[in-house]
Amino acid sequence: MSTVSTEKDTVSTLSDSIQKTPRPLQVAKRLEKFKTTIFTQMSNLAIKHGAINLGQGFPNFDGPEFVKEAAIQAIKDGKNQYARGYGVQELNNAIAERFKKDTGLAVDPEKEVTVTSGCTEAIAATILGLINPGDEVILFAPFYDSYEATLSMAGANVKCVTLRPPNFAVPINELKSAISKNTRAVLINTPHNPTGKMFTREEMNAIASICIENDVLVFTDEVYDKLAFEMDHISMASLPGMFERTVTMNSLGKTFSLTGWKIGWAIAPPHLTWGVRQAHAFLTFATSTPMQWATSVALRAPDSYYEELKRDYMKKKAILVEGLEAVGFKVFPSSGTYFVVVDHTPFGLENDIAFCEYLIEKVGVVAIPTSVFYLNPEDGKNLVRFTFCKDEETLKAAVKRMKEKLMRK
Amino acid sequence: MEEKLSTVAKSFTSSPIQELSHLAQRCSAINLAEGFPDFPAPAHIKTAAVSAINSDFNQYRHVQGLCDHLAIMAKKMHGLDVNPLTDIAICCGQTEAFAAAVFAIIDRGDEVVLFDPSYETYEGCITMAGGIPVFVALDPPHWTLDPNKLLQSVTRRTKAIVLNSPQNPTGKVFSKDELETIAGVCRTWNCLAITDEVYEHITFENEKHISLASFSGMQERTIITSSLSKTFSVTGWRVGWAIAPAFIASAIRNIHVKITDSAPAPFQEAALTALRSPSEYFESLRRDYESKRDYIVKLLAGIGFKIEFKPQGSIFLFAEIPESCLLSDVEYVKELIKQAGVVAVPGRGFFHTNLSMKKISQEDFSYQERYIRFAFCKSDTTLAAAAQKLGKLSDATGRLKLHHSDT
Description:
The complex is a heterodimer of chains A (409) and B (407). Chain A contains 13 helices and 13 strands. Residues 1-23 of chain A have low confidence and may be disordered. Chain A is globular, with a radius of gyration of 23 Å. Helices cover 40% and strands 14% of the residues of chain A. Chain A has helices at residues 14-19, 38-49, 65-76, 89-103, 118-130, 145-153, 172-178, 201-214, 270-283, 289-298, 303-327, 352-363, 392-405, and strands at residues 52-53, 113-116, 136-141, 157-162, 183-189, 217-221, 246-251, 264-267, 330-331, 339-343, 365-366, 368-369, 383-387. Chain B has 2 domains: 2-40 and 280-391, Aspartate Aminotransferase, domain 1 (Alpha-Beta Complex), CATH 3.90.1150; 59-275, Aspartate Aminotransferase, domain 2. In chain B, the strands form 3 sheets. In chain B, strands 2-8-7-6-5-3-4 form a 7-stranded mixed sheet, with helices on both faces. In chain B, strands 9-12-11 form a 3-stranded antiparallel sheet. Chain B has a two-stranded parallel sheet with strand order 1-10. Classes of the chains: A alpha/beta (409), B alpha/beta (407). At the A-B interface, α1, α3, α5, α6 and α9 of A face α1, α3, α5, α6 and β4 of B. Chain B: Residues 30-351 form the Aminotransferase class I/classII large domain.
């Protein structure tokens, strides 16, 4: 790949170089989409005002002891050097076993599973490995902010199909119109951040037929699959005809409250896995070794772990939702994830960012403005996102503050 | 469905280093190929990591203390004034720091100068970002930089120069003069520089690692990348960093957040302990690696390898196949695995010199198939075992005799 442009001068002299006018040092054009994230901005504001943070999506409680112990043991056992690029074998096996249990699909851990530094990297590697500049990729808005940024890094054209309240149902006809001969892939996040929506079987089947008909790939981000409360989680890969064209991505962080460990994975048929692995090799080369060993232990947790996880989160959700409704928000139904979106307009602020700033400064609670999750920020101006991945005391304290300082009299 | 791969992904082949590792594993060969230690990581650092996990440092994290300490070290080692609040991005290993740096500064069509031979990953990264790698061959046997070759390779489209010193695979430490030459080119042509300094603490004899950023006019245009991995024998922890002027560091941080979001949290915490290691730690690191270097140089020279250039730093030795042997590097390594039970890396994968340069200069580039890279970041037991296995295949004069017509 070491080609040299044909217009290049093969011999240049020192005098040529002196005559050249220096141009100002510039960062790459692709960085237009890469500003500091809204999460960091809100977190900084929150610290300044001593606000209770229901914005950023990570727990303020820790992961389970048995997983932490496994990591500690791995460090002590000397598992501290480079792992195999595509994953420690034990972990690839555990991922395949878990996937079989969840979906019924048998995958080859050696050829169809790739371990990455979190699902974020799985997404980056999938997009950089499988998308060409100029390819069209369809996203469902609102969407997690890394998707658009990574797609622009790959030079893709992003098209958006918007999910609207109150049900955030998939407008299938809009999806059909959005597909063109340049469409390479559709990206689906289910259970969905920020709305908590879970794509129904009907919706998944409809999307699947469109993709098969138009020979389009599907990339799924399923990190909240174990936080499915109101219905069963469905993996696109398990639908007829879909495994061969789907990259299924997931991670340790949300299921095991260890978001800082950065263990994720991509499951895909060999020809797609190959592209993911190529990009992954140049993005991070290998993933944290001791954490991989610990994850292989985590994934073999008994059913009781997952049942308890769901129970705990449903209790937390109840505290938050009851509180938000009592305060006067219009709360939209959230079937999964640990997020809920609400309409803030009853409180009279002009848009979501203004409302969130008000909430931090005057009420002492943090939420995330959703406009950043849309291609057109106007689409999100009425909505803000709260998270309930916090301990019960924190949730109750936040609700209390909102009842005292925000509730419409 | 192959057409579903991106153009860039289709152009990549799997890592030859990893493939040989698999062959070596199948033959239970002693692995002197991959650059990671087979001895334990330092106890005080492992303890710090365990403590971090137990203290619940397990969520997404930015550890400012780590940046503070890196700034202190940059001042101490290179006299650089680095603002720990704005000039540093913590990433998942130097690999990710480099990838994010490339994505931060390289637009489609930008040229990037690299020195040949070089570590295989840089080129892939640059290509993925749409950049064009341009290789400048270092001259064997001492891998010296010819300033004219560098000047001939720089154009209006050159956005950056990549410098890895101490260098993988040769073990070269770029001299002050060479660094000044590179700095001069960067200033004159208004290019950026990205450095890979992962072996910064592994230099031998009186060699001192000097960062390109410390030269006049360079700090404002240099992105330094490095990591914990080689200095602290924790290549599997994935903690690295980029140090750059604020506007570039900010861009790198923003990209890193989109690629991986955060480096593993407990290991960032442990990095604080690592970087505070007393100077004795770094001195003994250097001493230990120097004696391993001496051991392997003696061993390989003794069995007939041509070692005209002793490594000045890094954990690698780039040795030339004995003149009497007509095998290519790949064939030699295969025989070494199968017959001697020792694995190393054929050197050709590190050479990329442009075909156009080859045609024009009429230089002889056949040396590119005559080198083999040995890693000596292995325990004394491993090195001794390698010596024993190679010894078994030596003839009366002590030369390695592989069972293949090589006379």
